[in-house]
Amino acid sequence: MKKRILVAPLNWGLGHATRCIPIINALLNFGFEPIIASDGDALALLQKEFPDLFSIELPSYKISYSKQKAYFKLKLLKDTPKILKAIKAEKKATKHIVKTNDIVGIISDNRLGVYSKKVPSVIMTHQLNVLSGNTTWLSTLLHKKFIKHFDACWVPDFEDDNNLSGKLGHDNSIEIPIKYIGPLSRFLKKDSEILNNLLVILSGPEPQRTLLGEKLLEELKKHKEKVVLVNGNIEDEQTVQVVGNITLYNFMTTNQLEKTINESELIISRSGYTTVMDLAKLGKKAFFIPTPGQYEQEYLAKRLLELNIVPFCNQNDFTLDKLEQSKHFKGFESFNYETDYKDLFSFFERE
Questions:
Q1: 153-192 pLDDT tens trace
Q2: For the chain, what is the domain count?
């Protein structure tokens, strides 16, 4: 009987789920049986990617953003009791799942209640420091309190100075063993003919995803060249709509999106960490629009601007002519790092 590993990504945008795809594929290649556990769009996406795998719905954190950047932190603080309640509920659910499904190990991508004292439990996160402005010390302290319940922490980044996450993923005060496993991406770089001048990838929680989509559609109607826009709405059927020079998809599968990114000259997206890893893997040029009030995305965007890799602007300030800035930035350099999954999964071989 194959050893069953519970893989549980957080449903906060699609990044946590998509970066679990290479982990799940590697588990399958090494003879494990992954069991998927999440909720909402993250669960729906992984069910589409792995229709033959058993999946379980976990309690939802019900994370949403405010419409105004100024109220982002206030909204998150207001939602904290709800999030803590969900963490408590998923902890109870995990106990039941481990007991009834013969689970021998857990990989939790930022789901803070998905661990067990009965089986080796690892948390995968790039957030050793959780940025929240003048309360960063508090949010980081709380996050570390949850992290120490796990047996190990995997950071999807390089350990040395030539890394992608900066201060987010580098902190030597964590109480459990840390392993830097290299950046994770579900994509492969291919030498493709450029067919699209612009590719827009919308992601992240509502209502900001829709607000950005409306803003970009209005601006990109003025663009004279071909634009593809992927909405990130995981629905039962894929829809394709053509509006002038813009082709709109509600979502794309991994293979479709990999092909489309490789065939696109410039990518417009949020500056979420999973997006950064994907674009670095594919060696693309990009223009970032951080989610308003999300300190992590703002930090990554500013860091990549300072490194002359990718320009960015605030959501309200975006205009079509801002894309001209990308000509003066070098873009991401493709990397060929291969994660040592044999070494990584030896974590679950212990008695």
A1: 999 999 998 899 999 999 988 889 999 999 999 999 999 9
A2: 2
Reading the block at residue 84, the tokens are 């803590």
Residues 6+ apart with CB under 8 A from 272: 13, 15, 203, 204, 291, 296, 297, 300
Identify whether residues 171 and 214 lie together within a single domain: no
User: Is 188 part of any domain?
Assistant: no
pTM over 0.70: yes
Cross-sheet strand order for the sheet of 178-180: 55-57, 33-38, 4-9, 103-109, 121-124, 152-155, 178-180
CB 23 within 8 A of CB 184: yes
300 lies in some domain: yes
Torsion sign across C-alpha atoms 15, 124, 271, 254: negative
Q: Is residue 214 domain-shared with residue 138, that is, in the same domain?
A: no
Residue 305 within any structural domain of the chain: yes
- Which is nearest to 292 in space by CA: 86, 73, 96? 73
